[in-house]
Design goal:
Radius of gyration: 21 Å
Order of helices and strands: EEHEHEHEEHEEHEHHEHHHHHHH
Number of helices: 14
Largest sheet: 10 strands, mixed
Length: about 350
Amino acid sequence: MAQGQGAGSCRRGPRGSENSLTESKPRVSVIMPVFNRAGMIAEAINSIQTQSLSNLEIVVVDDGSTDDTVAVVEAIDDPRLRLIRHERNQGIPGARNTGLAAARGDFIAWLDSDDLARPRRLELQLAFLEANPNIAMVGACAATIGTGVKRKLRSAPGRHEIIRPTLLFRAAFKQSSLIGRAAILKNYPYNPDFPVCEDLDMFLRVSADHRVANLPEVLMERRDHAGQIVKQQAARVREFKRPLFAAEFDRLGIAADDTELDRHILLGRLRRRAVDREFIDWTERWLTRIIAANHRLRVYNDDGLAYVCALFWARACNAGFHGSDRAYGWRRLARSSLSLGLFNREGRYAFAANRAARRSL
């Protein structure tokens, strides 16, 4: 195997050499960045090898692994598989961009090395894109799996009108569920200035210029494990979300300070965490301010933003249910006009899509 010449160079395995590639252009290129995942990578690759759609290539980008990841990949005998190696670790954006540059398919799909694709994932998503030529990129819902983890749905907002405002609060896609048109996605490389949150940055840029969607069906399995970046680097994730959200608020004419941004980031990731009355009061004022700003500038679909704000308002009130004054959150949810957004047109669509996703779990 030839040696790379520097930190940004690549090495290809024997089955990944240019001479061994099939003459026909693959319909889909599945890009799989990997770093030190020797115990998981084979299963992830197998979930692509066994897809109902077979006209594909698998582009594995090893980002300088120091374990047996490369040996595991090289042992897999499949002419559709290409291994590209970084001499040194370049980080997630660099690995993703290497895959983007190398992809030969008309469509580009992603799968992280610790996740699994369901057998009909690519078939169903490709059919959707072919039936909807105005959609640049589509994702799907996911099921969370892992040792000791209760299987649960990780839903995703379906329509562009909901996805765009959702991205004002959190990532609206599961990176491992995405497939899009290569002619478009190659124009949106991942920003190396974002060693984390590179996916959110890309989602924001693509969705600002093109229509996007999520299918209301579970098409991938997402592992829950201690090695996930979101668990290892929570503080860095918050640090890099600030400029992304600040730029979105600038579009709305809102100059958010660091305190507001940090509270907004917390609002976007509330689960069953308890919050106090002051946070609930701030949330209502903050969301009302966002809706008013959008009403003036029309950055987002009005119904979509109203639904998304109502959803995060409900989560804030729900978090208040777990505090010392449980009734306060209930009262605020029932009395606020923000809650009406849950029942508008986009809200009704979202509830129907969520029910469909649960049936596929």
